[in-house]
Amino acid sequence: LSTELAQMKERLPEWLEASRALTAEGKTAAYIPELAKAPKEALGIHILNMNGESVSAGDCGLVFTMQSISKVFTLLLALMDNGEEVVFAKVGKEPTGDDFNSMLKLELVEPGIPFNPLINAGAIVISSLIHGATPEQKSERILRFFCELSGNETLGYNLDVCRSESATAHRNRSLAYFLKDNGVLDDDVEEVLDVYFHHCSVEVTCADLARMGLVLACGGKDPVTQKQLVPRRYVQIAKTFMMTCGMYNASGEFAIAAGLPAKSGVAGGIMTMVPGRLGIGVVGPALNSKGNSVAGVHLIETLSREFDWSMF
Ligand code: GLN
């Protein structure tokens, strides 16, 4: 084991338990009823380096849905399918400072396009840009892409979560119909949302997220197979969005505390990385008021401080 991972292995259980104490302050996401059932006290982490060595701690075996973490990868696929010019005619490049599902500001970026691809409105537009003749084909291409990046051929959907979200997605529906009215969505709204709910409900473990994060940390090259899975330029774009918008309206705070590109999801997952070195997957379903894993954020901030990981 590398010196860094060996040191981590020794201290990780203690740091993890300190962070776990914060789960008492958090709440599981309730607006998607299936997600409310997740174990509130759980906290797990998996850290993977470029030599394929890893350390993990806590509830790292927990299976959870990617939710917003999937938006990073649909953005990459949309860029690969369409190129930068087409994608950025439909979504902006700026953080919002509002909640992830905010209806505010949709009118402000000309001509009614979402501020960035990581808020819900932007991610719904990105789902519509994925190539495929039918929603099923689009979803299948997205799932294949996630399998390739995670090195895990067995990834699949949690259909209970997918249906549960669809049944209660009044806000996402209204965002999507508004985008349709603005001429930003070309396709049938329900078909676009079907693709969106499916990629949000892909199930992973911390190890899958660590591997996906490591590919991003390595500029799109799979360090295990040495295959360039995503063009370096697109990975650069995705990581920049993670730094500026990945933790919703807590992105500035997280950038100051941890200084790493990261993306969270409402099932409690966080994918982050140390550029050029490590991929990291964390899960802790208890969320803070900004919709980020309360214990997960604390644990990553602790590690970043202890190992001086901030990019700044
Ligand atoms: N599927 C979730 C939603 O649209 C994703 C949001 C999130 O993880 N923040 O509300």
UniProtKB/TrEMBL annotation:
Keyword Hydrolase listed: yes
Mitochondrion in keyword set: no
One GO term of the biological process aspect: glutamate biosynthetic process
One annotated GO molecular function: glutaminase activity
EC number(s) on file: 3.5.1.2
Lineage: superkingdom: Bacteria
One Pfam family here: Glutaminase
Keywords in alphabetical order: Acetylation, Hydrolase
Transmembrane segments: none
InterPro entries noted in UniProt: Beta-lactam/transpept-like (IPR012338), Glutaminase (IPR015868)
Principal EC category: hydrolase
Reaction catalysis annotation: L-glutamine + H2O = L-glutamate + NH4(+)
Residues annotated to bind substrate: 68, 120, 165, 172, 196, 248, 266
Description of how the protein assembles with itself and partners: Homotetramer.
Entry similarity comment: Belongs to the glutaminase family.
NCBIfam families hit by this protein: Gln_ase (TIGR03814)
Protein name (Swiss-Prot/TrEMBL): Glutaminase
Biological source species: Paenibacillus thalictri
